[in-house]
Amino acid sequence: MPSARPIRVAAFTSGATVPGARFRVRQYIPALARAGITVTERWPRLGAFPPRAKWLRPVWFVGTLAQRVPQIGLAHGADVTWLYRELVSTLVTFEGLTRRPRLLDVDDSIHLFRDGSTARRLARLVDMVVVSSPYLADAWRRWTSHVEVLPMAVDTDLITPAPLPARPVIGWLGSPANLPYLKGIAPALADVVARFPDVTVAVCSEQQPRLPGLPVRYVPWSPAAERPFLESLSIGIVPLADTPWERGKFSYKMLLYMAAGRPVVVSPVGSNADMLNGHNVGIAASDHGQWVAALSTLLADHAAAQRLGAEARQVAVRDYSISAIAPRLAQILRRLAA
User: What is the fold of 7-152+322-337?
Assistant: First the structure.
């Protein structure tokens, strides 16, 4: 049988250090190359997200657009344009100047920006929208019927199970923007530590958390720090608020815990609930009492925690590994190129 023809894809992402660009695009590039699909990724050096200082934003905006223009020109020889979110955060700018067919990749609730006008305009400009969850699919189907769900993938060859630590560790991994969720369950964590005094709360982030009274071990985040941090945990936690924005988030951190063979305790919001549904990988917790009960159960029953962690690993490999997701992505890109 003849091999499929080579496909060239121009991918536009938000920045070199943006987690979504890393997990939605960059980690697939080697697997896609083996399938005959060459992906060239481009991002603006100034980033697609505005700086915190408002006075810098006009300069940032003009500079980012100026950097996008030659990138768009260089990409016009590609067979498919792959847009990870907007070229500039919350806005429609030069997307219509990229070459068709266009794939828009969405892993956050950007349909909430500007009362939906940004998403509506983007949907009209692209040929397909790929989203990370059924919740986002329902949102985007208001504007286009060409929507497919492609969950986030985790590198299960890199993140692998390790023996549970001798002393129990409850771990949280996330960006500084999500630290308020962790702070919100600090009273529950304090109650758990009072019941199990040998427990440590480990936090891996780019910013040190303020959790007074808790035995916190802080690990500065870096890509290299993720694997040893996960191996040091007994339980992984993902607290979230239940709002429209959080319902559209894909819980990649939950997926990392699962790949490491760790049981999870998570807020049943968005993709957290999707991954818990039908899979015996952890426990849902919505309020103070449920967080205390769920964590206490796993800390008191070592065998149950191990069983949940083993099932979590199996689910991650079977349903969310790069080897499971990349072929589906390749089919989408080939279908568009055709």
Answer: Rossmann fold (3.40.50)
